[in-house]
Amino acid sequence: ISLMEEPAPGATFRLLERYPFASRGRLLYVVGPSGAGKDAVLAWVREHLPGGAPVVFARRTITRAPKGEDSRFLSASEFQAELAAGAFAMHWRANGNWYGIGAELRSWLAQGLTVVVNGSRDYLPRALADFPGLEVIHLTAPAETLRERLARRAREGEAELEQRLARGAALRLPESVRFTEIVNDAAISDAGRALLGRLLPDTHTLPRT
Fold first, then answer.
1. Own/partner pairs for 69-75, CB < 8 Å, 24+ apart?
2. pLDDT tens track of the chain, all 209 residues?
C-alpha cells in the first residue's frame, strides 16, 4: 500500500510511505566496508550462478558515472523525478550521490524469487523496517587488507582513507535479524562460493571453479 500526497491543487503527487504486504521470496541485502570487494564478488556470483536458479540481482540506479559495477546512471533531477513517481523500493544518499533500487523488487519477492541487493549500511535500518524478513550478508576483510586495497586504488588521501576505515567498523544488528558474514581476504572465488551457498536452494549444485 502506498501513501501519496498532493502538495498543492493540481500538483504532481509524491510518495510519502510504502507499507509492504508479506512476500514469499527471500531478500538478501549485501553490505560491506570500502575495500571489501562487494562489486567483484557479486560479479563472480552472477557469472557462476547455475542456469534456472530462482535468483535475481537488483540493479542499482546511481547519480554518478558507474565505476565497473552493473548499474544505471541518472542525473540528480532525473532521479528525483523517478523517486516522486514511486519508481524505487529503496533509495538512499551516500557520498553526495543518490542510489535507488527499483520497485520491481517487490514483484520479484511476490513471485517467490531470491533477490540480491547491493545495499548501504546506513540505509539498513530503513530496509529492515520496510522488509522485516530481510537477510543481511556482511562482506568484509581484515582491517589491514582493507587499508591496502584502499591505498592501491589511490582515490583518497590518508585522512579520508582512515575515515572510510572507521566507517567500516563492526556491524551491529538486532539479534532477530538473519545475518551471515563472509570474509573476502583470499581468492574472489572463495567469497563468491560462500555467497552462492546462501543464495542457492538445496536443489542446486555449487560450481567447482
1. 69/39, 69/42, 69/43, 69/118, 70/43, 70/46
2. 788 899 899 999 888 776 665 558 999 999 988 888 888 999 999 999 999 999 999 999 999 876 666 789 999 999 999 999 999 999 999 888 999 999 999 999 999 999 999 999 899 999 999 999 999 999 998 878 877 766 666 555 566 655 655 555 567 777 778 899 999 999 999 999 999 999 986 544 445 44
Cell match 540480491: residue? Answer: 116
Q: Is the dihedral of CA 138, 122, 29, 45 positive or negative?
A: negative
Q: Are 124 and 30 in contact (CB under 8 A)?
A: no
Q: How many CB atoms lie within 10 A of CB 66?
A: 12
Q: Which residues pair with 179 in a beta bridge?
A: 136
Between CA 177 and CA 170 the distance in angstroms is 15
Alpha carbon distance 130, 171 (integer Å): 19
pTM (2 d.p.): 0.77
